[in-house]
Backbone:
């Protein structure tokens, strides 16, 4: 048996001038060298050779079918035939422990390789006769059969009991994946719903100020007609015409409900206390609008505190 010297590190005490610290110290350990797995090396070598031959088959079928399709873009279409059955070959490998699932990609792979071989045979008949057609079509078939031999070696036969146990484990894992996907979708839907609710509350808060002007609801069609379509919707009175010597007096701004809500909440008041305080200061405000504004401002403050 062969051995290898492996350098490791351990922590030891080192004292200088009465002060002790843990410092790393390297040391050497003799470890047995694992023998090479010749079976795995042989399987990797064979798989590499088969892959190289498959690439040759893909190039051959691409050129042959590309000529049959008139060249140009036909070469790209010709590559589809062998690449298709090679892709299905990967699915067959992934399902190597599930015979029922493995059977479908295997049948599809044989169907695709027969289609590719048929196209190559047709191109050979048109180019030089049945001899060239038969040999050319056999290239893809030989490549497919080599992969079949490799898979037969890789596949491990399971007893019915072991196969049932493996199927139960795969079913459990698939169920966990399905549950995780469903929960992810539910979480996304919940986030979208909460964002919609926040947007709705924001819109309600923006229009809440309009509820503090009851006179605006008293504007009639006669007022609009009488004053030429110009009415002050904030106070329910006709807006004065602009004249060169007329200066409009700025009106005193109404109390800002959102600002009052922020002030009350930052003082430590609860939502209900903030609503009652705002209604005392702005008695004309609607309670539902004030509650929506307070709730929205509370959410904003919570998000800022969370960040």
Residues:
């Amino acid at each position: 048996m062969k051995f290898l010297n492996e350098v490791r590190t351990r922590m030891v005490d080192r004292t200088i001038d009465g002060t002790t610290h843990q410092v790393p110290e390297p040391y050497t350990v003799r470890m047995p060298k694992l023998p090479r797995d010749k079976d795995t090396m042989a399987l990797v070598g064979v798989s590499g050779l088969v892959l190289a031959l498959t690439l040759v088959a893909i190039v051959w079928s691409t050129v042959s079918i590309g000529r049959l399709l008139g060249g140009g873009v036909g070469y790209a279409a010709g590559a589809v035939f062998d690449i298709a059955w090679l892709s299905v070959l990967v699915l067959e490998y992934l399902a190597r422990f599930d015979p029922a699932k493995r059977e479908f990609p295997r049948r599809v792979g044989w169907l695709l390789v027969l289609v590719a071989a048929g196209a190559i045979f047709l191109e050979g008949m048109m180019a030089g006769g049945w001899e060239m057609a038969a040999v050319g079509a056999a290239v893809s078939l030989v490549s497919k059969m080599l992969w079949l031999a490799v898979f037969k070696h890789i596949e491990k036969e399971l007893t019915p009991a072991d196969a049932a146990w493996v199927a139960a484990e795969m079913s459990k894992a698939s169920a966990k994946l399905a549950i995780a996907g469903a929960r992810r979708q539910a979480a996304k839907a919940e986030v979208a719903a909460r964002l919609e609710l926040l947007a709705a509350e924001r819109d309600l808060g923006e229009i809440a100020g309009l509820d503090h002007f009851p006179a605006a609801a008293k504007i009639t069609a006669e007022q609009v007609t009488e004053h030429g379509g110009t009415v002050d919707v904030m106070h329910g009175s006709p807006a004065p015409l602009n004249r060169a010597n007329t200066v409009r007096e700025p009106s005193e701004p109404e109390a800002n409900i959102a600002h009052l809500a922020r002030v009350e909440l930052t003082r430590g008041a609860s939502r209900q206390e903030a609503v009652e305080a705002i209604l005392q200061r702005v008695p004309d405000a609607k309670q539902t609008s004030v509650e929506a504004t307070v709730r929205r401002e509370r959410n904003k403050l919570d998000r800022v505190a969370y960040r």
Q: What stands out?
A: Strands lie at 3-16, 19-32, 231-232, 237-238.
